[in-house]
Amino acid sequence: MVGSGNKKRNAILQTVFVLALLILLNVIGAYVFQRIDLTKEKRFTLTKSTKNLVQNLDDVIFIKVYLEGELPAGIKRLRNSTNEMLSEFKSYGGSDIQFLFENPLAGLSDEEKQQVLIQLGKKGIQPTNLQVQDDGAYSESIIFPAASIFYKGRETSVQLLESKIGQGPQQAINSSIALLEYKFANAINTVQRTSTPRVAIIEGHGEMGSNQLQGMVNVLAPFYQVERFNMNDHLYIPDRYKCIIIAKPTESFPEPDKYKIDQYLMNGGSILWFVESMYAELDSLRNNNAFMSVARDLNIDDQLFKYGVRVNKNLVQDMVCNPIPLMTGYLGDTPQYDLFPWLYY
After folding, report:
1. Is the dihedral of CA 150, 151, 157, 159 positive or negative?
2. What's the pLDDT score for residue 166?
3. CA–CA separation, 116 and 106 (whole Å)
4. DSSP letter, residue 209
5. Helices marked H in 94-230 — which ranges?
6. Tens digit of pLDDT for each residue in 146-200?
7. DSSP readout, 1-32?
8. Where are the alpha helices (DSSP H) in 145-179?
9. Residue 91, SS3?
10. What number of CA atoms fall less than 13 Å from residue 179's CA on the CB side?
């Protein structure tokens, strides 16, 4: 009987201990955020640059996320992932990172809702109209998958939901979650910036023209002042450029231009090289049944090698490739096209 009483008392003590430990862990968890990234690629671990960004803030960054209330499952997953991401930002940034979630239309009249729509629209935040099925009946719900970032009287916005043509809802949510760190880090960096840095697109060696680079310029334009810089017209590359871009040169670099590039780099400049060592243009195959791929003589191999880079004279042939349309003949006066695998696409 004594042994039975001891066992019962020990069981009660163990239960009390486990309950006390769980309560303690929950209390600690309320004040300390930590998550373990078990993915091989460390997809859920902040990059070093993001950690440095939030650890070196000189004032409070306040983030208002407009995802709250009754949300569909996919959007709720985006909302929870956003909360986890911002909590991790806060674990490194401390009190300089503050955020809240709200439904901007909650408790408002129709007239007040219209005013909110106009105000958010001026910030570049557009609503998403969702159709929700409940007990066989469909209803519409307006949500704002976006956030506003405030810093020292300045403000910028982030659109959290990514959507592309041909992409299903699940893929869109996954893509949106994968881009959360980039979007918030980029927005924090943008709202802190007091001046717009300059970048230069280099010309003079058969680089890509304005039309070919327009997409890249459009992406850079909100953050950088993009200019074109012809090296033939200048004795040196000014240090006012944060970075220079050398986009697919097709002509040989003379030694004076290589010296200008080297001096710019040695004085603290940055360079983006987009170099193709082999000539293999799609237009050549359109105009002829076959063509010979040859090496481009750009005269920069020695300079790149000095920087620790070697561009091999190789072509990558991908057996899992996309097809391209090629004309195979005529039906009367109408050209006929068939799709053929293009091993470099």
Report:
1. negative
2. 57
3. 11
4. -
5. 110-122, 169-178, 180-192, 214-220
6. 999 999 888 999 998 887 655 677 888 888 898 999 999 999 988 888 788 999 9
7. -HHHHHHHHHHHHHHHHHHHHHHHHHHHHHH-
8. 169-178
9. helix
10. 16
Number of neighbouring beta carbons within 10 Å of residue 139: 9
Among 295, 281, 296, 279, smallest CA distance to 342 is for 281
pLDDT at 261: 96
Tokens of 125: 């935040």
Nearest to 184 by CA among 104, 73, 74, 97: 97
Alpha carbons 38 and 183: distance in angstroms, whole number: 23
233 by Cβ neighbours in 10 Å (0-12 / 13-18 / 19+) ranks as exposed
Please choose, from the candidates 271, 117, 293, 251, the residue with its C-alpha nearest in 3D space to the C-alpha of residue 200: 271
Compute the residue count for the chain: 345
Task: In whole angstroms, give the CA distance from residue 199 to residue 220.
Answer: 9
Bridge partners of 245? Answer: 201, 272
Q: How confident is the model at residue 21 (pLDDT cuts 50, 70, 90)?
A: confident
pLDDT attached to residue 196: 85
For the segment 105-154, what is each residue's pLDDT rounded down to a tens digit?
888 888 888 898 888 888 888 888 776 555 655 666 788 889 999 998 88
The pTM of this model reads: 0.58
Which residue's structure tokens are 């010979």? Answer: 292
Nearest to 63 by CA among 161, 189, 127, 158: 158
pLDDT in tens, 142-152: 888 899 999 98
- Positive or negative, the CA dihedral 273, 279, 280, 281 is positive
